[in-house]
Amino acid sequence: MRYYDRYNIKKIKYFTGLYKKKFQNNKIQIKEKKVGSGFVGEVFEISFIKDNTTIFKFIVKRQPFDIRYRYERYFNIETAKLVNNKVIPNFIKHYDSYVLNNQVSFLMENADRGLDHWSLKERTFEQYLSFAFQILSALYVFKKYIRGCHYDVSYQNIMYIKLKDTEDKYFEYKINEVSYYIPIFGKLFLLIDFGRGRSLKLSKDNETKKCIEEDTDLYRFKNIFEEMKYLYHIEKLQLKFDYNDLLTKLKLTNSNIIHDKFIIIKSRESKVQNERFDHILRIIEFMKVAEENNILQLNTFHGVNDKYLNFINNITSIDNFYIHFDKFTVKQPKNKVIDTFKMT
Length: 344
Known about the structure:
Blueprint: H1 9-21, E1 29-37, E2 42-50, E3 53-64, H2 68-84, E4 94-100, E5 103-108, E6 113-114, H3 115-118, H4 125-145, E7 148-149, E8 158-162, E9 170-175, E10 178-183, E11 187-191, E12 198-199, H5 206-213, H6 216-236, H7 243-250, H8 255-267, H9 274-292, H10 305-313, E13 337-342
Parallel strand pairs: 9-13
Antiparallel strand pairs: 1-2, 2-3, 3-5, 4-5, 6-8, 7-12, 8-11, 9-10
Helix pairs in contact: 8-9
């Protein structure tokens, strides 16, 4: 997509309006395709077709209406404001929501792929820093403006949009009057799914206070790189190791693990991302146990393990994460900044 398309409010309202009215004619057809499912709902891609060409797309997440709707809707509205007001670009942008027949539908922008897909290719240290800054910025803004925490930071809740003609472009993030020029490398990373989000504006319960005070989001973000390492071996290396042999050596008898082996292999052919998530998490846990017991040997992940992990582990607070990225404040790229965001 072109970057500024996500700020075309008039266009967004036009197509979401057509969808809600279920409007179709000889010129524009609406097509719906299921692309995911989770614990409480399903995800559909909505395409508008004109003259055999797709002219607009967005995502609809449908789930049963319950008390969580109020909270998720609140986070959707607040994060959309932060995107529209150019505070931060790194939230999935929500367009609208409505309740019909005891079912809630959330309408949101269509991201291209997930972090699991991004991790399958070789990435440079600079690309990992770009990814880290973008997502940490989202967590920083969530904490500062919404006074809350996402509470579900993991690889399946980070996606990206491919931005045309931005491989050598930059975003400028302003924090405390200091500009950070972050290379994009053609990817806008997005934090998605606020269904488990918490905010002191909604509740001052102990769990909400604890997740904010202890920077739970930062702790979970640091675990993502390890998840990506295992995802790389699951997908790229096609599970080329003998699980039965590993099970014997570890003396594990959990039949679910054996079952998951075949589920993973089968689900590789599926493009429905969320249907695979639970099974992948179990496989990752199994791989960790095998690796810790020196039974499973995994190759170095893209050769940036130590350097990136050392960098990320030095960040101890979301509140001042940006001080670790001071290398990006030194020089302003001439004529290459495509947008500026004032985070503070």
